[in-house]
Amino acid sequence: MIKVAVDAMGGDYAPGEMVAGAVDAVNTQPGIQVILVGKEDVVNAELSKYTYEKDRIQVVNATEVIATEEPPVNAIRKKKDSSIVVGMNLVKKKEADAFVSAGSSGAILVGGQVIVGRSKGVERPPLAPLIPTEKGVSLLIDCGANVDARPSHLVQFARMGSIYMENVMHIKNPRVAIVNIGAEEEKGNALVKETFPLLKECRDINFIGSIEAREIPHGGADVIVCEAFVGNVILKLYEGVGATLLSKVKGAMMSDLRSKIGALLVKPALKATLKSFDASRYGGAPLLGLNGLVVKTHGNSKANEVKNSIIQCVAFKEQGINEKIRESLNADREHE
Amino acid sequence: MIKVAVDAMGGDYAPGEMVAGAVDAVNTQPGIQVILVGKEDVVNAELSKYTYEKDRIQVVNATEVIATEEPPVNAIRKKKDSSIVVGMNLVKKKEADAFVSAGSSGAILVGGQVIVGRSKGVERPPLAPLIPTEKGVSLLIDCGANVDARPSHLVQFARMGSIYMENVMHIKNPRVAIVNIGAEEEKGNALVKETFPLLKECRDINFIGSIEAREIPHGGADVIVCEAFVGNVILKLYEGVGATLLSKVKGAMMSDLRSKIGALLVKPALKATLKSFDASRYGGAPLLGLNGLVVKTHGNSKANEVKNSIIQCVAFKEQGINEKIRESLNADREHE
What we know:
Helix content of chain A: 40-55%
Distance between the termini of chain A: 39 Å
Pfam family, one (chains A, B): FA_synthesis
Oligomer: homodimer
Family (chains A, B): Belongs to the PlsX family.
Radius of gyration of chain A: 20 Å
Keywords (chains A, B): Acyltransferase, Cytoplasm, Lipid biosynthesis, Lipid metabolism, Phospholipid biosynthesis, Phospholipid metabolism, Transferase
EC number (chains A, B): 2.3.1.274
Main location (chains A, B): cytoplasm
């Protein structure tokens, strides 16, 4: 049994969609127990709407909620009885294997480091979402709060990302590339130029060189390494351009009667195709390199993404990702 | 009469599409003369296919071509008779008002600074393409080669971009924002945190604060300020995500008979709508802050984009953008 703590109070659609996703997860996937963390009465009221095996969902009370706009360091320190702090403490005390939250990114990143704690040898834990591509998915690492990263951090990101893609997503010998403004080795800013030769020397990854942003949606690499500012821009622009284009396509289809009839005919095929480009299918983003698993799902997650984020924890735990990361990074350290 | 020198040899479809675009420009817009720079015999052979007023297109011979993969500094120094060097010298000697090229970005950026020269007071000339948004277009400044920029550079970019959008695109009091990973003032990397207060103090721009990448396609600001590495990622990801999504939409529409019939009905409306999201409509990207105008068009430009890039030079020249930039930046300098 794998135990996943879920933040019932975080996210735009909490607690309703968080609870619904938890129920869906236990009803879909055997071998999972969920611990819903949040205001007991509210969570129980939601739970009473569903049918599920009672012993597979437990509620742990947390009286406080950290809001998205709260300064994260302060929030984690002061709100000891918030769903994020209580949930992360369950992971710390090994009462849960993982913690899934759609709440404040900042608080999750801070809490992950402060409460769950960095794994030995990890300099900075990166937030690594899966992004859809033409060919499947790629891991974008780092999209967290580690701005102004150093080359050694990026090398660790490359390694952790490789381990994740190989073991959780089952991509053999994943192609690792660094985001750059040209394909040539001599291009880039100071950080990329310093990191490039270090990645080239790295024997335990399949480094294929630079990747230009244009190639990311085409699936040009499996693990896309960058510092968090650039990662954040990529992740959010992906969403923004996608949303704008799709709304333009929809608008065009509704613009006159002829188009409306055409849209009815096209709709089923279009829906199926675009679903493959929908980030929510792939669950949340793991915060890698911690003494336990923390997964951040989109703030606007609905039940389906919550369910997928919970199920994702199974492969992570079963494959022993944390142990593999620890081994890899510390083996490296001994060589130095 | 405004004289625009055009690099007949640069770009994926040179010389054919470059020459076609030049002919279209003089046939569409009065008051323009074009100087086609390149291998005389090749250019004349292309020109002989078209009808146009002979005295409005002139050919200037240049025997060499700078390839995209050549190291730019070296290429500009050694290939004195290349179309880029010859064309830029025409601007330097005031024999042309502007130079338009679809050739090597690196060589154009280097040549602009070395041959045409920076305008007094300009620290770094930024490359500033227009990108399509839901509401129209925004100026993305800088997408050039100025990686690892300093806060003072970004402030100049904000000012130059404002002047451009106000006078060339006729957007009154353009909204200026800096690309950031959150909307709050305290967020961001070191560069953004240092630049933010400087932009706030700047009285001659309408600074509206941070913009997250997600809001860029929605048209959240008119002038989008960032350093070139981030700008390059934004520009190329815009193209990449757009291309991938549209190919997915097209694929879906061709997937079965029902969809194919629907696609026929939807096509006219869809085409018209998506055209508004097509970067080529807006011509090339000016390299701002030089002693003359240099415009970089996409490497894969066809006649239409070349034509628009040439026509764009008219407004730039007529509005005296260079003079306005010089005044603005030097007025500032005197205050210091």
